[in-house]
Design goal:
5 helices; 45% helix; alpha/beta; Rossmann fold; globular
């Protein structure tokens, strides 16, 4: 199952997205983890183009996406609309949620089991 899914991390700060990816790679070395952080000029914010480009660069067709703040979600939703990828994004704690999902993907847990473990991390 691990080769069926990739993980996309979207943050307003490139260093934050890359730092979380570094953490995830410690527990999910066989999972494709990509980041779309910051804007194209390196500023704080998010970029639809950067998110779309990163999303389309996955070989996997099923992507689990995690984001840090609201405008990241908005740009992700727009990118999903124009993508052929099967993207599921989660309104959950960014670090804890992506870590849990990546570790469980590495352990070849079912998507249902992963989503059950993510429920307590939902942001209300």
């Amino acid at each position: 199952m691990s080769k069926e899914y990739g993980v996309l991390l979207i943050s307003h700060v490139d260093g934050l997205a890359k730092g979380v990816a570094t953490l995830l790679n410690e527990v999910a070395a066989n999972i494709t983890i990509k980041t779309a952080g910051g804007t194209s000029d390196g500023s704080v914010g998010t970029s639809f183009d950067r998110i779309q480009e990163t999303l389309e660069s996955f070989e996997e067709n099923n992507i689990l996406a995690f984001y840090d703040l609201g405008s990241a979600k908005m740009n992700l939703e727009l990118a999903i609309e124009v993508s052929d990828k099967n993207v599921t994004f989660y309104d959950i704690a960014f670090v804890e949620g992506s870590y849990t999902a990546a570790a469980l993907l590495q352990a070849e847990a079912s998507i249902e089991a992963i989503e059950e473990q993510l429920l307590p991390l939902k942001i209300k």
